[in-house]
């Protein structure tokens, strides 16, 4: 049993918040049992560690997920100090708190009945450097409060120890990059399943453990949740895990405590600059998992300059992969693995390609999704799975047979019986929209109809760019809403239409639907026929649409199916849900 305070050099805050004498957590009310780690499977009972004399059986950074026996890690957040929520976490069952010095002082003051620093708004960012102490509620029970220099960085390490180092017992793969993380992770999942049977898959779409899946709260889980899932996976005999690694997740230490067998870098394109500030910092976040602490080895696509830089500077061994057959650059010709030819299938189902290995042997492989980008994703997955121990032939066959990925070039309605081919795709950046439209053009004998919008409260600059790309590459445009969030949807559509007008000043074959996204899709389906293709972009798998602070249940897929007369759907939802729904 690990003694956490000694192992991680944690100091006890002071006598002011005394340690619980027996470490029990009895008599607790309101402990939520639907917390994430409970939903996907729980390993409680077998996992334990001791912190300052108290038995700890779980770890969390979120008070609303705290359960009996948890260690609550109170991090100084971007908006508030986690110490503010320590009382709620303890009330819900947490038996100890790890925080920074500012948080500990705030809790000690609260315990002594003293007010915090009146100048510090407890909702605001806390600057540890100023030593300002926020006002926080006192803990409802005496529990140990321990101090760490950087609790956010430590949360994953603590969870790894508390859950008994579960990642040591699984084959683990992480996929990072601006685009293609989800698709590549699904392809890796297929290859790992072919070899190991049961696999855990974590990412934007879902958290899946074996055959049990829940909607994913974020692309990269909080570190304690990640280690909790790993522990549950180990308990259930799941042999391997693949996760997407978002740049925010990496920067916020959500992968702390992990050492992956293989990390994969797909590409870097302009995105998330609101968070990272510059491309250099965005790149640095992604590159940081290519370190001996985080991974044994890597697979790097050298199709762009960022990948070439990463491969050249990586402190861990990497296999390089070039996936653009036309690329004759020195980096491509020198790559360990290379896609030397690709036959982008005109049936829209996928593509065949030839992958040359480090020994010069050529292997015929397939991407089950259309377009060159998915040749890149499929090749990345084959090489990553192989680096993770899957025989090459097994990886190639499994990726070729991978089933549809929710919301990624997903063919919801096949062409026929008077209906257009109806596709859902998650493209929400200018680059991705170009790739998506170019991929469906060759499989469209008739008109290519694009239904799209753009997110509110996100990068405004891309709206006219999306409009211009749509006007250039699609025949008919149906402009509608995505997730307007707090913005005026009409203003977002107007910015898109500004871009459309640069190529189509008279808005020829452009329709603006102001009532709802569902109406826009219905319109597209009703006005198309068998030779046409309708593609709706931007929301992919998303199960909700966010409008003015309200998350309405919504999925493009359901609307398509209803629009072509599938009796299982009504009002854009499965019939049984529609019957009882209010929003
Ligand atoms: C911008 C950002 O990344 N924020 C992350 C950050 O939040 P924060 O520092 O603002 O937290 P805060 O609100 O100040 O709260 C401080 C602490 O108190 C805790 N708290 C807060 C309120 C409460 O009632 N109880 C409680 O315990 C919080 O969990 C946190 O630990 O630290 C929190 C805890 O570690 C994260 O949950 C949170 O991610 C939020 C939810 C988020 O949505 N992040 C997005 C940007 C994100 O990570 N996205 C990527 C994908 C991006 C992409 O590819 O498009 C992802 O991996 O999902
Ligand atoms: N390798 C790639 N390069 C460029 N674009 C891609 C690539 N793979 C997929 N895309 C496009 O980007 C969209 C998102 O793909 P995917 O979900 O696999 O990426 P992601 O990295 O998980 O994205 P996000 O971080 O936004 O969730 C797809 O719908 C497709 O249009």
From TrEMBL:
Any one Gene Ontology MF annotation carried by this entry is: magnesium ion binding
Question: Which top-level group of life is the source organism from?
Answer: Bacteria
Q: Which Pfam families match?
A: Mur_ligase (PF01225), Mur_ligase_C (PF02875), Mur_ligase_M (PF08245)
Which locations, inside or outside the cell, does it occupy? Cytoplasm
Positions carrying N6-carboxylysine:
286
State the GO CC annotations: cytoplasm
Say where the protein is mainly found: cytoplasm
Assigned EC number: 6.3.2.-
Q: How is it modified after translation?
A: Carboxylation is probably crucial for Mg(2+) binding and, consequently, for the gamma-phosphate positioning of ATP.
* Residues in Mur ligase N-terminal catalytic domain copies: 56-103
Domain (Mur ligase C-terminal): give its ranges: 407-540
**Which residues hold ATP?**
177-183
Gene Ontology biological process terms, A to Z: cell division; cell wall organization; peptidoglycan biosynthetic process; regulation of cell shape
Q: What does this protein do?
A: Catalyzes the addition of an amino acid to the nucleotide precursor UDP-N-acetylmuramoyl-L-alanyl-D-glutamate (UMAG) in the biosynthesis of bacterial cell-wall peptidoglycan.
Q: What is this protein called?
A: UDP-N-acetylmuramyl-tripeptide synthetase
What species does this protein belong to?
Miniimonas arenae
């Amino acid at each position: 049993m690990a003694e956490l305070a000694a192992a991680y050099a944690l100091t006890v805050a002071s006598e002011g918040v005394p340690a619980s004498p027996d470490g029990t957590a009895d008599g607790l009310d309101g402990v939520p049992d639907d917390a994430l780690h409970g939903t996907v499977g729980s390993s409680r009972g077998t996992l334990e560690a001791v912190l300052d004399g108290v038995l700890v059986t779980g770890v969390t950074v979120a008070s609303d997920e705290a359960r009996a026996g948890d260690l609550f890690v109170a991090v100084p957040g971007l908006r508030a100090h986690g110490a503010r929520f320590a009382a709620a976490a303890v009330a819900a069952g947490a038996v100890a708190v790890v925080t920074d010095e500012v948080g500990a002082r705030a809790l000690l003051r609260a315990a002594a009945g003293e007010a915090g620093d009146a100048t510090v708004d407890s909702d605001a960012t806390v600057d540890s450097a100023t030593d300002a102490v926020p006002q926080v509620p006192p803990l409802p029970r005496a529990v140990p409060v321990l101090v760490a220099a950087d609790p956010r960085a430590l949360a994953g390490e603590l969870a790894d120890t508390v859950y008994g180092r579960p990642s040591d017992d699984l084959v683990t793969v992480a996929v990072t990059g601006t685009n293609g993380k989800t698709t590549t992770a699904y392809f890796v999942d297929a290859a790992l399943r072919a070899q190991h049977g049961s696999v855990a898959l974590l990412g934007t779409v879902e958290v899946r453990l074996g055959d049990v899946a829940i909607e994913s709260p974020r692309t990269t889980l909080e570190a304690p949740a990640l280690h909790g899932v790993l522990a549950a996976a180990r308990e259930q005999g799941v042999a391997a895990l693949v996760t997407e690694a978002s740049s925010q997740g990496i920067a916020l230490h959500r992968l702390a405590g992990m050492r992956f067998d293989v990390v994969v870098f797909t590409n870097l394109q302009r995105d998330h600059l609101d968070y990272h500030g510059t491309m250099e910092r965005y790149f640095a976040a992604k590159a940081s998992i290519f370190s001996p602490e985080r991974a044994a080895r890597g697979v790097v696509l050298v199709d762009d300059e960022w990948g070439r830089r990463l491969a050249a500077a990586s402190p861990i061994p990497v296999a390089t992969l070039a996936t653009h057959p036309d690329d004759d650059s020195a980096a491509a010709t020198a790559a360990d693995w290379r896609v030397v030819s690709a036959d982008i299938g005109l049936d829209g189902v996928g593509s065949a390609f030839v992958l040359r290995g480090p020994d010069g042997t050529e292997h015929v492989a397939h991407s089950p999704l259309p377009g060159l980008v998915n040749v890149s994703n499929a090749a990345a997955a084959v090489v990553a799975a192989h680096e993770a121990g899957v025989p090459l032939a097994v990886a190639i066959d499994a990726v070729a047979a991978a089933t549809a990925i929710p919301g990624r070039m997903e063919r919801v309605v096949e062409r026929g019986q008077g209906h257009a081919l109806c596709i859902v795709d998650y493209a929400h950046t200018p680059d991705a929209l170009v790739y998506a439209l170019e991929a469906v053009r060759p499989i469209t004998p008739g008109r290519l109809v694009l239904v799209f919008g753009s997110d509110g409260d996100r990068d405004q600059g891309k709206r006219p760019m999306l409009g211009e790309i749509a006007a250039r590459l699609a025949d008919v445009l149906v402009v509608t809403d995505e997730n307007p969030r707090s913005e005026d949807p009409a203003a977002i559509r107007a910015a898109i239409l500004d871009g459309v007008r640069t190529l189509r000043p008279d808005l020829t074959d452009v329709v603006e639907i102001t009532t709802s996204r569902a109406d826009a899709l219905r319109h597209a389906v009703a006005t198309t026929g068998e030779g046409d293709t309708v593609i709706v972009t931007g929301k992919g798998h998303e199960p909700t649409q966010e409008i003015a602070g309200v998350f309405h249940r919504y999925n493009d897929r359901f609307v398509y199916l209803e629009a072509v007369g599938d009796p299982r759907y009504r009002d854009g939802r499965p019939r049984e849900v529609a019957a009882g729904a209010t929003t």
